[in-house]
Amino acid sequence: MARTDLFDLGGERLSAGEGRRLELEVAQEPLELAGVRYLVLPPTVPVTLEISRTTGGGYALRLRCSSTLRGPCMRCLEPAAPLVEVDAREVDLPGGGEELDSPYVQGDLLDLRSWVRDAVALAAPDQVLCDPACPGLCPVCAVSLASAGPEHRHESEPDPRWAKLRELDLS
Ligand SMILES: [Zn+2]
Ligand SMILES: [Zn+2]
Fold first, then answer.
1. Do residues 24 and 12 touch, judged by C-beta distance below 8 A?
2. In angstroms, what is the span from residue 140 Cα to ligand 2's centroid?
3. Rounded to the nearest whole angstrom, what is the distance from the C-alpha of residue 10 to the centroid of ligand 1?
4. Distance 153 CA to ligand 2 centre (A)
5. What is the Cα–Cα distance from 32 to 168, expressed in whole angstroms?
6. Strand stretches in 28-82, DSSP E
7. What would the pLDDT profile of 29-73 be if each residue is shown by its tens digit?
8. Statement: residue 170 has pLDDT above 60
9. Phi and psi angles of residue 73, each rounded to the nearest 5 degrees, phi first
10. Distance of alpha carbon 135 from alpha carbon 84, whole angstroms
11. What pLDDT is recorded for position 1?
12. Across-strand partners of 88?
């Protein structure tokens, strides 16, 4: 299937009230989250685009796709690959004001690549984790606690104040 970055909505020749569902493929680019670069896979993602022609010559659009982020876990830095499910909608109605003026639609052209990129960024988790229960790093030695195992711990340094107390113990 050919990759679609810019989609010609006008080419569908829909009349008001008509709709169409299309399966397309869109190129994805890396995403920066909290200053870290994440790959967005697959490089070309299958998307489902639903187009409805509204009265007044506008469009109501729905976009669905599934992408996988790949990069370091934000807690332990081990590889993480969370799935990002996108289900986004846009409305573009000429003369409908700012809220009904989709930034991705110019005339009859839909900037599908930018919409997919932004929708994936919006649907991405706030925290990219290798596992929702990732225990993170040991605060003492910074080893990954998930790989070090539950028995990982450090002997706590004896508190000098306790030593003083022991000296005072007269029994
Ligand atoms: Zn982790
Ligand atoms: Zn440790």
1. no
2. 5
3. 46
4. 6
5. 59
6. 31-33, 36-41, 44-53, 59-72, 79-80
7. 999 998 999 999 999 999 999 999 998 889 999 999 999 999 999
8. no
9. -60, 135
10. 22
11. 64
12. 63
- Tokens at 91, concatenated: 């409305």
113 and 10 Cβ atoms separated by less than 8 Å: no
Distance 126 CA to ligand 2 centre (A): 27
Radius of gyration of the chain (CA): 26
- Residue-wise pLDDT for 2-18, tens only, equals 789 999 999 999 999 99
Backbone angles phi, psi at 38, to 5 degrees: -115, 135
**What local confidence, expressed as pLDDT, does residue 110 receive?**
97
145 alpha carbon – ligand 1 mean position (Å): 9
* Residue located via tokens 């990954």: 144
Closest CA to 67 of 33, 34, 91: 33
CA 134 vs CA 33, 40, 51, 79, 163: distances in Å = 18, 21, 40, 12, 37
**DSSP 3-state of 87:** strand
Joined together, the tokens standing for residue 8 give 């010609």
Average confidence (pLDDT) over 87-107? 91
Measured CA to CA in angstroms, residue 91 lies from 3, 13, 51 at distances of 23, 18, 10
